[in-house]
Structure formats: structure tokens, C-alpha cells
Amino acid sequence: TCFVEAEEAGRVGPEGVQAPRNVLEEWVVRGERERLREFRAWRAAQSGGAKVRCTARSAESTERAVCLECVPNAGAGASAFSPVANVAVFGSELVMTFNGLPQCLANTAGSGYCKTGTVAVPM
């Protein structure tokens, strides 16, 4: 698991221009040294000042990971993959669930980066 602290640039949204914000992301990445090095380089290229810290994760918790976003390693030749969401109705609420890490890896030739969470704080 890798945790990324970065500044996300401002952008235009439905309510107009959104200010830049700080984000904390959690990604599940296969633990080989080369794969971690590639992830760090990819994420740093996305936002120059990103701080990346990676820690080991148990095999059991890795299997239960749910990907909000799945990004292929650029050198793997796989195309980008957005997990398919399943929507269910519980009472008066809609609940959306996504596919797990195995589907992310299957759709990215085993090289995917699986974003499992993100928190944003306006600056």
C-alpha cells in the first residue's frame, strides 16, 4: 500500500472554478521493488511535489481491496481501466460498489495501480 500526499491543481467544475486542494490518496501496488519505483515515478510526474510512502499490506487485506480507480503501468501496454460500478437500492438510498484488485490486475496485464481511497482538503 502506498500513501500519496499531493497538491491537486484547481479546475473547472459544475459550480465554477474550484480552488487547488491538498489530497491524501491510498493506492494498492504490487510490492516488487521495480513496481514501487515505477509507481513513485508515475505519481511524482502527476504532481511534482507529491510525497509517496509505501508500507507492506497483508495478503488478506490486499485481496479485499476495492478499486475506485485502476491505472495501468505505462510500460505494460495495457489501456486505462475504470472499474464497473454496481448500483443497488437500500431503502431510499443508492449504494455503489466497485470491483476489486483482482479485476484491476486482470484488466491491466497484472501491472495496475489500484486507488482505494482519497481525501481532499481545500487549501
Give a brief description:
With 123 residues, this protein is an alpha+beta fold.
What order do the helices and strands come in, and which of them pair?
Layout: E1 2-8, E2 11-13, E3 16-18, E4 21-28, H1 33-46, E5 51-54, H2 59-63, E6 69-71, E7 86-90, E8 93-97, H3 101-107, E9 113-122
Antiparallel strand pairs: 1-4, 1-5, 2-3, 4-9, 6-9, 7-8
Describe the structure.
This protein has 123 residues and is an alpha+beta fold. It has three helices and nine strands. The chain is 21% helix and 39% strand. Strands 5-1-4-9-6 form a five-stranded antiparallel sheet. A two-stranded antiparallel ribbon has the order 2-3. Strands 7-8 form a two-stranded antiparallel sheet. A hairpin with a 2-residue loop joins strand 7 and strand 8. The chain is globular, with a radius of gyration of 16 Å. 19% of the residues are buried.
Task: Return the structural class.
Answer: alpha+beta
Q: Please give the largest β-sheet.
A: 5 strands, antiparallel
Calculate Rg over CA atoms: 16 Å
Beta strands, count: 9
Fraction of residues in β-strands: 35-45%
Largest sheet, order of strands side by side? 5-1-4-9-6
Kindly report the average pLDDT value. Answer: 79
The shape, in one word, is globular
Helix/strand order, N-terminal first:
EEEEHEHEEEHE
Low-confidence stretches: 76-81
Helical content (DSSP H or I, runs of 4+): 10-25%
Number of discrete helical segments: 3
